[in-house]
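Lecture 7, part 2: worked example. A protein chain together with alpha-L-arabinofuranose.
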Amino acid sequence: MKNKLKIAVGVILFFVTATFQIYSQSIKIDVDKPTAKIQPSMWGIFFEDINFAADGGLYAEMVKNRSFEFTKPDMGWEIDGDAFSLNASSFIVSNRSSQNPQNPRYGSVKLSGDNAGLNMINEGFRGMGVKENNTYNFSIIASLVDDAKIKAIITLLSSSGEEIGNASIDFKSKDWNKYEVSIGCSKTDLKAKLKLRFEGSGEINFDMVSLFPADTWKNRKGGLRADLVQKLADLNPGFFRFPGGCIVEGRDLTKRYQWKTTVGDVEDRTMIVNRWNTQFDHRLTPDYFQTFGLGFYEYFLLSEDIGAEPVPIINCGMACQFNTAEVVPLDELEPYVQDALDLIEFANGTTDTKWGKLRAEMGHPESFGMEYIGIGNEQWGPQYFERYAIFEQAIMAKYPEVKIISTTGPFPDDNLFHYAKGELKNFSAPIVDEHYYRSPQWFFDNATRYDNYDRNSYKIFAGEYAAQNVEVCSPDNTNSWHCALSEAAFMTGLERNADVVYMCSYAPLFAHVEGWQWRPDLIWFDNLNSLATPNYYVQQLFGVNAGTDLLSTKADGKDLTGQGGVFASSVWDANTKEVIIKVVNNNKEVKSTVFELNSSKKFISKATMTVIGSEDLDLINTLEKPDNIVPVNKGVKVSGNTIKLDLDPYSLSVISVKQR
Ligand code: AHR
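Predicted complex, written out as structure tokens:
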């Protein structure tokens, strides 16, 4: 009898404990009283031409060194001919810098004898990705010398040397003309090459040897890689920041990013070496240059295409302080300030202004409606604020409606950061850019970072962040699930502080699997395929579930900032009439949770839940296994205003509950 009693008590205790465990945590969401607006700009994109993000990446040009302007003019080309022979057909590089300073070099081929020939093979950016049945648009600018009779045979070569597409051009004139021809492709190959064979007699000059896939984004000629732009659009970005990053600054001032040299005809844009070319000894990329085929006009257009606010960052008269740290004397800063003013005119000015007219000529008479401009990237110290003051005054005087973004330097909590915070009190900058490249633990610990920020001060642009699981700039960092989970936890803190945090973006954005310098990165790609990292999915889950109003989300009367390993925030979406809860379970066990929606509203009984998680914190996605870790959709039952859920171990869950 005693034993039976013991068993009965045990069974009851088991159920009581289990019931208690199942609903051990209760999260209350105050739906009727939103506490702040979520800015439409909240979750956005940071773009920089690092890791072959532009040339060799988003910009779909397949010919590397198309205008022979690389330091070594034949880099990327394998050219027949014998430079030491007086009789053989030959290739030479000419320089017409006085006539054409923006694009001074061009190639010349002299064919020796009748029916001679010379081959030039371009290797592309770690090869050229081509697809069966796709069309490739070849173009070249050329002029015949005297009475030369020359044609070109253009061939796509597979990685094994097989011909997989060809076309030819008969050159007609001594004038510089553009010749274009389309090439069909019979085979998919990740590492194809382009062969250009000149045949005939005499001499030809040529420049801008170019090959683009026809299936670019929106099928624009000379456009962007469609799969990569689609990945950006799928983030539902509120803004698009460009062109960086340190690339804005340049390693020295001559190599700073100058937007005016990146607009107008592509052949007139002045190419420069990419600052990431030799930045890291462990990842040297000597063939990394900036053609600016993807220039400021294209950045604005891209922002518009993906529904994001354009956020250009411009040089403030300072080169990268990690490199030369050159500064422009204050009395020579005027052209830099004028560049900023002219940029606003280029983006927004009417077509009767100088720069508005150029925008219209390039195809966009309407204003781009640019609202933000960033002054400097990661600058620090008094030199920055002396220069910033001049920019701020000039921009506010001419364009008071434009919101200026300032910066607190490269680190989130050092003496430079605190100095900048103090200085910023003297300025009107409405938004300030903070960067955090820190360990995953830092991200978990800093979910409360903005809880006690001054509510009467500037707003925050979390302009670059990414968890680093080895250390900043280490080539061994990975896009692990642990990093992504820590970013998700941190992002609940950004969202919870949406009254001060107005803009956020992960960085860097893109990386070519064979051409990268920095990792982790949000999206990886080769010449045909692209890959979403776990970090990408976290960004996407926040971006597509941004909502319009912040809701108080508490357990035991406190914000969820990691107590018991749980982080949470929630929003109301006035457009879709949904409560959207984001919750991170940073435990290796399931976390059983009750969500109570405190509201006079009624909700439909079926909610949706998207979960991304893995018990393997080191897990990454790869091009071979892109689905190792991806979001999964589930149905969830809503009883009245209550939802009971088991949160998966090490997961981010996004629960959307629709009003009835
Ligand atoms: O995102 C890579 C680099 O990190 C950026 O160029 C720079 O702003 C930061 O230091």
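Residues 48, 50, 244-246, 377-378, 410, 464, 507-508, 518 surround alpha-L-arabinofuranose (CB under 6 Å). The longest strand covers residues 189-213. Keep this in mind for problem set question 3.
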